[in-house]
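FW: tagging you since you asked about this chain on Friday. Here's the raw sequence from the shared folder, copied in full. Didn't touch anything.
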Amino acid sequence: MLLRYKQFVRAVTSFLIHTFAILAALVIAGSAAAHPAPFSYLDLYLDNDKVHGALVVHDFDAAHELRIEKPEMLLHAATVRAHQEALIALLKSRLRLRTNDDELIPNWGEIEVLTERQSLRLPFVLDRLAGGSLGIEALLFPYDAAHQTFINVYEHGELKQQVILDSRHQTTKFYSGSLQGRWAVVTTFVQAGMHHIFIGPDHILFLLGLLLLGGSWWRLAGIVTAFTLAHSITLSFAALGVLYVSPVIVEPAIALSIIVVGVDNLLVNRQRRSSPQTAGTTRDLRIWMAAVFGLIHGFGFAAVLLEFGLPREALAWSLAAFNIGVELGQLFIVLALIAAGKIATRLPGYRAAAERFLTLASAAVIAAGVYWLLQRIGLVPAA
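HL: got it, structure written out here
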């Protein structure tokens, strides 16, 4: 009973979306008769043994690209047959379907005329989906900046994904519900999380700044854990749409967090030098800073993740995998830093050099934070 209810809700949702698109087209037609409907439709059906689908395009768009003066001529079967190869050649260069790194080549069928919709339907069949994911890239009619392609993906007869592609958003990716699909989600988003850590110098510098003062394994593990838990919370909230903070606020705040960490390092180091006998009892606020500022960094991670795109059909898997990727990247950096520190302790003159290094490194952290802060509030031009 519950399954039938879900199927009914999805069917009604799909009907309403198509109806809205048609009504929008009619409104546009009333205000701009020269271009009655800047929409195309791509329906994809994924089954165990094959993938098939259909692309529906408006006669106006097809006529424009084929340089046919009267679009209504394409509603005649004879005209369509005469231009079928040219239209397919045009569209297949603007519609790309991929599974992993392999491009899928559609086997196009006969074009069907949809007279009442003033459209043409181009059916096709694809090879079986391999790897559990299907990448879709579509920019069908670039001459019209307002043109949109409505995409519906069905798996085993059930609507799984609906997305709209346009000139600003030309790609999307669908992950199947199979084990292969789940694995594709995990590998994709783990790599994305690791990639973001390694190309995000502000996050790395904040974490390194927190670890410059050193400490026991448990102390360092506590700092990294606090940062991890904090940014995971806000990352999840932002990615799920529960809470959102504008990058206009987040990015300067991240830069400010780096400055605070650097300044704290200098203050603690000065206190240790002035009172060596109390060095072991010097206040250590790094866990609290990691937790508080980690919440802010989480919104920064979320901005990247949302730009990357979360698949609705595998939301939890993709969110968890991205978090795992971020943590693996952090772990690699932390272990490398700890290993370098252990090696350095065996060198002669380590203590004196360590103090100078801490001062210089903390000053560099502050300088980088100040530069990013000024840049992100617009006082310094972007590089």
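FW: The radius of gyration is 28 Å.
HL: agreed, and Residues 204 and 280 are 27 Å apart (CA to CA).
FW: great, closing this out.
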